[in-house]
Amino acid sequence: ILGSTKPLSDSFVLHKNAMDAFTDLSEFLRQNSIAIVDNSMGKERKVSKLGLPLKIDEVEPLSPSLRYSSLFPPVPHPLLGGSDLGIDKRKVSGAVPTPIRIQIRFEGSSKWPSSLNAMGAAKCAMLIQLAEGIEKMKKSDNLDEFDGPIDVTPTHLDMGYRGYSFRIIVRADQELRMLKGLRNPNEEAKALRLGLINRHVRGSMHHSLSHAVHTRHPSSSSVVRLAHRWVAS
Fold first, then answer.
1. Region at 9 (left for phi over 0; alpha for psi -120 to 50; beta for the rest)
2. What is the pLDDT of residue 139?
3. Which residue among 21, 29, 79, 107 has its CA within the 20 to 30 Å range from the CA of 144?
């Protein structure tokens, strides 16, 4: 019966809730990375609430959960800032769901390093600063939407927001241009460039195309998910 469909069993609702959380998170990251004038130290300086040296220009989705094609759409987890739905949090499993992958792109700047090793370190430093900035804002602004641990690795940042586990990676187009400009790239450099193109460029293009197909043909979501089940069996 159509009227008896439960939100936690409706794939469309589950996908839409995850996408709404992503939209709010992307707006939060963009707005709080904008530099504002700060006179608290007796000297005028520009700094963002998140403490990032560069503004976040784009927050791009990469996960199937954000294009209506996830076989098992994520369900909000009470321990990650989600609504508890009347559930006793002491009885909730601490298992973290599969992270929703997204990527951030910073504004163009000459401050990016000119070597590949330094570029990797700079991307990791950006993620560390982002994690520290969110932790500070959680204490000062009482951000209930953020909950659970924030973990940073050399390649990504994992955190909980509105019940979902988000995995943030940094896309630096300067890194791709640097690899493309190598005269005699070795096999390692070739593999790195291909991996970055697949992860950042082709991954973003694939997501946009899949989402556009669903927008025009809503039934494509069920078709894709059914195809996943068929292939897996």
1. alpha
2. 83
3. 107
